Structures are given as C-alpha cells and as structure tokens.
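Two proteins were folded this term; both appear here.
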Amino acid sequence: MDHCQLIYEGSVKSVLSVENKPFYLFKYSDAFSVFDWGKMPDTIDDKGRALALIGNIFFKLLGDPVRWQQWPLIQNIRNVQNIKNVQGYAEIEKSEIYREFATLGVAHHCYGMGAQDDLLMVKKIEVMRPAAIWHHGKICWDYSAYKKSLRNTLIPLEIIFRFSLPPGSSLFSRLGDGRYCRELGIEIDKKLPEKFNIPLIEFSSKLETTDRYLSYAQAQEMAGMSDLEFAKLKESVSLIALRLKDLLAECEVELCDGKLEMCWGEDLKADGTRELILVDSIGPDELRLLYQGAQLTKEKMREFYRDSAWYVAVAEAKILGKEEGIENWQRICEERLGQSPPRIWPDKLKIFSSMYRAFANHLGEHFFKERYFYDCDNLSVVAEKLR
C-alpha cells in the first residue's frame, strides 16, 4: 500500500491510485451501508476480503469467452424442445452482442486481485458528478456535460434487472404508471408472472444523494446516449444478467434481481457507438440471491432495521431534504429528528460474516476449486442460520 493516494472514499470501499501504475485499486472495507445512509456504526468481519474475491470471480467468469460459448441456454435454443417456454430466448444466439461476448468475453474493468485479498485492480475511469442546483423549490441535477459524447467515463445510471418480483419489491410501487409498465413490457391488465424469462430492466440515478427511478427516455437523456447506444446498453445488461443467472444456477443459487454499472470505453465501434465496459462490483451487495430458501444478500441486514424508529425517520428525512433543497438528509435525521442507526447484535454480525465468507468459498470451490476461508461453515449450514 506504499505510494498510494486516496481518490475516493465511499461507505464500503475506497478508490486508490498507485504511483506509476496504470490502474486504480478498489479497497473493500468491512463496513456496510443500507437505505443510502452511508457507513453504518457496525462492521462485518472479513466482508471486504470476501467481496473482493467474489467480484473477481464474477468478472473472470463473464470475461471468459469460453463460458459464453458453453452457455447451456444457447444449446437449448438450438434444441427448442428442451425449453419449457422459449418466448424471448429465440433471438439470443443471433444477437450481435452475444457473438461479441462469445468471441471476446464481456469487456470489464477488473485486472485481478491486488497484493492484498481486499484489493481489486481496476481500469482508471472518470466519474463526472452532476452539479446540484436549487430550482423552483427543489434540488435539480445538471447532466449537461454528458451531452458531449464522453469517453472513458462512468455512465451515471444504476441499471436494475429483475427475474422475479418477491414481496417488498420496489417495482410494485411503480405499477400504477401505465406508460412506465409498457416500457418494461408489463401487461398491466393481466396477472404478473411469478418469474420472467428475459429480465425486466429499470434505471435509476447513480450519482445523486438519493436514488430515483427513471423512465427510459429520462435515463437515455441523462446519460447523453444515442438511440443505438441505449438499445445496446439494455441488451448487454439483459445478456449479462441471463448469463449470471445460469452461472449461479450451476451451484444451486437462484438470482432474483440485481444492479449493474457500466462505463464508456475509449474506442468507438464500427457503427459509431461508444464501447460499453462493465464496472464497479458484483456480489451479494448488488444481487438478490436465494440458496436453499435463504437470502444471501444485504436484505437480511435491512430486515434488522425495518422495525426501528431510525428507519421511519430515514424516510421522513429524505422527504424533508428534497422539499428543503438539503443534500445531507442524514444530518436532518440525526439532528432534527433525533435518530441514528441502532447497533446490530453481535450474534447477527457473526451470521452476516459467515454469509459473505461461505458464499465466496461456494463460488471459488465450484468454479476454480479454490477455498478462501478455512474456518467457515459451508453455505448450507449458513443458509439454515439465515432462514
């Protein structure tokens, strides 16, 4: 860690530059964040190391063209009778983006593990943060810089994919908007299916003080993308989500939903669109996962807080912050409403630690025959404790 400079410090990971090196380091901590609060008062042992290892595994799998060539779904498309419901799958093999993934793998920013197990080496990219503007009594955000066809820059969107709608899914609160549902391909006059073959894709803001969901038109305009770039973004995320789902199914883990982030590369494609690169992290903090009926996700931590006065105050503070044009709504929560996050019981923290470590072991052993945490129960034992 000598000759490192802190570039950005987030609630769960920091970004470091290394003198005379062409990459950044993601340094994962044992801290965690829920409900957009930032760093919570507790820490989870070995969480940082586990997340770095898990992220590296997923980037290696998605970046490997052989994994795409050997995708069982493609074999099933060629032999249609093996699929119970082929609707939505038929065009995948013909997809230009699929062919690119099967030739080159997914372009991503991860170069591999750093010198320590809580470090990932990643491509240097720019983050262009929008300016907050007070306009007609509320905070607005200036994304005009994104209209300049930026390169090597983070796309300011969180991209959410959904294969199912479990109880409590935030999408239920948006189903009253007919236009929004039609964008997602949801038939509002019919009963929603329990699961989707092709994932629903949603977008929310990424670089604002609180996330807000966006229509497709809003997302495209915010990010300054052409029609073709936006179409390729949605298709890329859909294919990546489908491949993740099947990779996880190999080790008996169900992927329900998740979120991804992308950046623009430095090069242009032959069709004039900017290169898309998968960035940030992929793991239990970004994915909703089920194993033997247990959730392997931050949702278990969120459940702990939902009965607290602090959780109620968080919702109120966010509303007040928007109404009053105050970005730091957390300060409203603490100083005006008198609520701070409660501490988690030590036995719960031990279970959460086991969840991250056991999941890292589960993936490592299945895909690479590697075990990272030798003093950890297997995932079946941990799942029983989480249920």
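Next, the second protein.
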Amino acid sequence: MSAPPSDAILSARGLTKEFFGFKAVNDVDLDVREGTIHAMIGPNGAGKTTVFNLLTKFLTPTAGTIVFRGEDITRLKPADVARKGLVRSFQISAVFPHLTVLDNVRVALQRKAHLGTQFWRSNTLLDRLNDEAHQLIDAVGLAPFANHDAAELPYGRKRALEIATTLALDPPVLLFDEPMAGMGVEDIGRISDLIRRIAKGRTVLMVEHNLNVVADLCDQVTVLARGEVLAEGDYAAVSSDKRVREAYMGSEDE
C-alpha cells in the first residue's frame, strides 16, 4: 500500500463499504492534492456517492482508512470532520427557504463568530456579521438578491446561495455532490465559473456527471466502476482510456 503524496490534503487507502455482503466500494485508494479541483466520475452504480459519503463520514467504512491533513479521521463523526475543514454540499439545495439570502449567510457565519446558530440572537448582535455576509453574497453573484427570500430564487441561484453558506465556514476543502444536477446551460456556466473562482486557495472534490464540466474545470479525475478505481489522471488521459469508454458506453461486442 503506497503512502500518500506529500501534497495530498485528503487521502483514502483500502476504502471498502459492504452492505449485507455486497461490496459497493472495494479497496479504493484516493489522493486529493492540495489546491486542485478533483472529480470523481463513473457510470451509474459505480460507487461515487458511497465514496463521497465515506469521505465525509456520513457512512462508516467496513475497511480502510481516511486521512485529512495528516490526521486519521476514519472514525470521526460528520460534524467533527466539518469542524476540521472538510465541508460538503448536497445534490439537493440545503438553504432556509423563508429566510432572506442575507439571513441565510448570517446563520452560516454565526458558528465562526462564536454565536452558535441560535435564531433568537438580536439583530443588533447579528448586524456585525453583515459586512462579511455581503462580501460572500457578492462573491457568488447574489448581491442583487440579498434581501430576497431564498424560496424566490431560481434553482441555480439557490445552489449559489448554498455555496455562499458553505464558504461562510471558510473550509480549506469543499466537497460538491453533483453541483450541476438539474441545471440548465446558463446555470451550469454560472456555477462552473463560481467554482473556478472559489477554488483559488482551496481544494475542491466533486462528484459530477456532466463530463463537459469535468473537462473544463478539473485538474485530476478518478474514474470509478463497480466500486473500484478504474482509471486516474487528467481528463485527456482518462477520456482516452479504452476501459473508461467501455464502462460508459459498453464494449464493441455488446
């Protein structure tokens, strides 16, 4: 078993997850290098989301180890991992629909400001978060919507708001689970540009089905098939791999 490279911020070795005897993930090694945008791709049922949930501790591995910033986090709980700076988003936008964009971001900022996440805090106390909240809102292109309820936003803007609330925690590593799911072309372009901007000075790991997005954004790609690593490298390398083409499209004999 090889040691993680020195610039790996997140690594897994021998990662395995069994469900009632079925190995959904089998002996996966993964290294996410600091400062890169890294994608996990693969056909449906490849085990991408399971690996993602293992890395973020929403599932406990049957075997294997996970190391973040040199620390073994294999047995930690999701909240403990998030506090250490490994923060994820979800396929479904997770914002408070009946709070404004500004209030959603202020809620996310409360933990960093040692104010907990208590909704009964006075506006006077929370107003000290406004400058930072507006900076985050502007960074994700939502400045014109700061006083709109989240429920009023179109889908792509809601995902941008979710990214703003994630950024409020100032994590060194962001994990995105299918950030382009359900989006039209215009929203995909907007969120791709946003991820590219916020990745400067951070590390991003994403599960993504849209291969055009992966080709455009990602420095490194890990391809999964049947719960195992099929190929790794930059997009040009993995897209030209015969095994990858067969995994996605089937062999010529089928």
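DSSP finds ten helices and ten strands in the chain. The chain has two domains: 1-85+172-254, 93-170. These notes refer to the second protein only.
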